[in-house]
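Q: Joint fold for the lines below.
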Amino acid sequence: MTQSDDKQPTDTIELIEVCQSNWRDLTGIEVAESQKAFVAEPCYYLAMCCYGQLWSPLAISLDGRIIGMMMWAVDPDDRSCWLGGIMIDRNSQCRGLGERAVRQAIGMLSRIHSHRRFALSYSPDNHRARRLYQRIGFVETGEMEGDEIVARLDVSSTPDVGTP
Ligand SMILES: CC(C)(COP(=O)(O)OP(=O)(O)OC[C@H]1O[C@@H](n2cnc3c(N)ncnc32)[C@H](O)[C@@H]1OP(=O)(O)O)[C@@H](O)C(=O)NCCC(=O)NCCS
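A: Joint structure:
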């Protein structure tokens, strides 16, 4: 093997389409036991994307290996682009990958789909997710989505937010 064949990890995060060849990898994503109350199983989210006619899934890949997922959808009522089902596999957490993936999603969705207003929601007990979204610039509005706190972000006023 030559030196150029020897692939070193580059820590490259990519958001990739979920397709026939990778959907099984998403079903293997696992969060920590203490985090299970905050999200549904990946299979549930994939079924929701397939049949619910609203959400679209994205796989989060690190150096070509799927380590997480998220979904996005435009709410016909508030016209905001909602992010949901955000999860990073327990073995890849606390390395800044969740933050980079969310920033990248916002960058991609604002560039390609021209979305400006983003929204998401989280359990009041989900302190890690709350801190992560606040670091990116999401602001709590006082709204609730069921039992979850809603936070919003307008990229027109925070243009650098999609820069990983
Ligand atoms: C929320 C979640 C997506 C965050 O993913 P993540 O990749 O761990 O996120 P980050 O690494 O960017 O940030 C997590 C923590 O690691 C810290 N961190 C970032 N880079 C780090 C590094 N190189 N070394 C050590 N810690 C680091 C961050 O500062 C942050 O610290 P904090 O919890 O004290 O605020 C992940 O915890 C998860 O999947 N949780 C379960 C599902 C869930 O709750 N989803 C959200 C639903 S709303």
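Q: Anything notable?
A: Confidence is low (pLDDT under 50) at residues 1-5. Strands lie at 13-17, 56-62, 65-74, 81-88, 117-122, 139-145, 148-154.
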